[in-house]
UniProtKB/TrEMBL annotation:
<dbReference type="GO" id="GO:0003677">
    <property type="term" value="F:DNA binding"/>
</dbReference>
<dbReference type="InterPro" id="IPR053189">
    <property type="entry name" value="Clp_protease_adapter_ClpF"/>
</dbReference>
<keyword id="KW-0732">Signal</keyword>
<feature type="signal peptide">
    <location>
        <begin position="1"/>
        <end position="21"/>
    </location>
</feature>
<dbReference type="InterPro" id="IPR011722">
    <property type="entry name" value="Hemimethylated_DNA-bd_dom"/>
</dbReference>
<protein>
    <submittedName>
        <fullName>F-box only protein 21</fullName>
    </submittedName>
</protein>
<dbReference type="InterPro" id="IPR036623">
    <property type="entry name" value="Hemimethylated_DNA-bd_sf"/>
</dbReference>
<feature type="domain" description="Hemimethylated DNA-binding">
    <location>
        <begin position="121"/>
        <end position="223"/>
    </location>
</feature>
<dbReference type="Pfam" id="PF08755">
    <property type="entry name" value="YccV-like"/>
</dbReference>
Length: 233
């Protein structure tokens, strides 16, 4: 229910003070009772008329209701604006974090973007068994990049100034055979450091079934999801 404003309260006070006002009126205009009654009636009628116009009028209540609704709408709009800004800010922040995570997972030939067409200078294919020329371990290729895609810190450590050129050559992600014997389960190496092992070579690695469904005598057969990424391998 709308509250009574200061003007209405003042009018009520004036109405209630009609009788005390009569005393002062009588002192001012004399003691004639008819005159006092007439003046008092006029005062009461004027006060009542003003009170009804301000507090009992339908139009007055409608105006107060409009004012109240206007203030309420303003508060709601402000609240919605704050809510939208909050959602935008945190949503944007979350999106940026998600993009950062996606970039992290695209390192080391883990990106899921389709490698098509396949450049002619990419010599090896996913599923081929390889041997490392310097370290001697064997493994199977599970992904490749046309050049090294890795954190800058890793690249600086991996490739000192004398080997900077290797960063721009094809790189392969390898599941290392009998990984426990080498202290790590995967490797990311440039093309010049590996060679293909011909013939049957069984690769033992806990993630083999996630990437491959079998072996066809020359290389491992990619799972459907991996084949979509490397359709030409």
């Amino acid at each position: 229910m709308p509250h009574i404003n200061a003007a209405a309260a003042l009018q009520i006070c004036v109405l209630l003070s009609a009788l005390p006002a009569q005393y002062f009126i009588s002192r001012w205009y004399g003691t004639d009772s008819a005159q006092r009654i007439q003046i008092t009636e006029r005062l009461i009628i004027a006060s009542w008329s003003s009170f009804t116009k301000s507090c009992l009028s339908r139009d007055a209540w409608a105006d107060r209701l409009k004012l109240w609704l206007s203030k309420t709408r303003t508060c709601l709009n402000a609240g919605l604006l704050i809510l939208h800004f909050r959602n935008w800010y945190y949503g944007e922040k979350k999106t940026k974090i998600g993009d950062s995570e996606a970039e992290t997972h695209s390192y080391f030939a883990e990106s899921t973007h389709v490698r098509s067409p396949k450049p002619e200078y990419i010599q090896f294919s996913v599923g081929q068994v390889i041997g490392h020329k310097r370290f001697g371990y064997s493994g199977v290729i599970v992904g490749w990049d046309v050049k090294a895609i890795a954190p800058e810190e890793w690249l600086q450590h991996k490739y000192p100034p004398a080997k900077q050129g290797l960063k721009d050559t094809p790189h392969y992600r390898i599941l290392i055979n009998k990984a426990n014997g080498y202290g790590k389960s995967t490797a990311y190496v440039p093309e010049e450091e590996i060679t293909i092992i011909m013939g049957v070579e069984v690769v033992h690695h806990p993630d083999m079934k996630a990437y491959f469904s079998g072996y066809d005598g020359s290389k491992y057969i990619m799972q459907p999801w991996l084949k979509k990424i490397y359709p030409h391998d």
